[in-house]
Amino acid sequence: MNSDMIGNILAYLGQGGIVMIPLILCSFAMWALILDRMFFFSRLERKDIALHALVRILDRDPASKCLVPSEAKGPRAHLARHVLSHRTKDCKVNKRIVDQCCMAMVPGLERYLASIAVFAAVAPLFGLLGTVTGMITTFDVITLFGTGNAKAMAGGISEALVTTQSGLVVAIPGFFMSALLFRRSHAAKNRLEEAAIILKRRL
Q1: C-alpha distance from residue 132 to each of 136, 160, 168 (Å)
Q2: Which has the closest alpha carbon to 155: 129, 126, 134, 136?
Q3: How many domains is the chain built from?
Q4: Domain range for residue 121?
Q5: Would you tell me how many other CB atoms lie within 10 Å of the CB of residue 46?
Q6: Considering only CA atoms, which of 96, 201, 186 is closest in space to residue 82?
Q7: Burial 103-116 (b: 16+ CB within 10 A, else e)
């Protein structure tokens, strides 16, 4: 990215006025959380154990505590490792251990998703705020100079349009990524629930 392109971007953002500052901060915060969750779910899916592997672990030696590979970091692996380490001879207690572990893991699978959705929803509101402030500026110019000074009116109109466009540019991919991450979170919770059902049946 050369200096001319950076200058053009800064000039464009400058047309939006003071409202562009919280809008830019909102965008950075939203994408930081999106990238964090994308890497998180990718890591869980890549390093988790399959259901058939979980069944083999339980069938091979149910009393062992070290059958889950150490490199496995997914929800199924964590659940199996926790249950095998804390299991008792009481079947009801073991089922409660499974439920307790699942309940403790669910908040981690849903972390930051609500914040991402809020940032995506707030962005167009900042754009709307910029629209309002831009139109107020335009009307102030009309009050002072009338409608004959098009150059003076252009600043307020530019502020209104730039902030509206920027708010939509932030919000549209934000809503898309939010829906995608909610779907991946739901899939991870389904995998965890499947593992919990298998563990309850075999403990």
Answers
A1: 6, 7, 15
A2: 134
A3: 1
A4: 3-202
A5: 9
A6: 96
A7: eebeeebeebbeeb
Q: What is the DSSP string of 9-78?
A: HHHHHHHTGGGHHHHHHHHHHHHHHHHHHHHHHHHHHHHPPPHHHHHHHHHH-TT-S--S-TT--SHHHH
- Cα maximum dimension of the chain: 88
Tokens (6 digits) for 2: 């050369």
Cα 188 to its chain centre, rounded Å, is 14
Question: Concatenated DSSP letters for 125-153?
Answer: HHHHHHHHHHHHHHHHHHHHH-TT-HHHH
How many CB atoms lie under 10 A from the CB of residue 78? 21
Mean local confidence (pLDDT), 130-159 = 77
| Separation CA 89–CA 94 (nearest Å) | 8
Least confident of 12-16, 172-176, 178-182: 12-16
Structure-token pair, residue 26:
């909102």
Amino acid at 24: I
Segment 134-147 mean pLDDT:
77
User: Is pLDDT of 181 > 90?
Assistant: yes
pLDDT band of 61, cuts 50, 70, 90: low
| DSSP reduced 3-state for 89 | coil
State the pLDDT at residue 120: 95
In this prediction, residues 6-22 reach a mean pLDDT of 76
Name the DSSP letter for residue 90. Answer: -
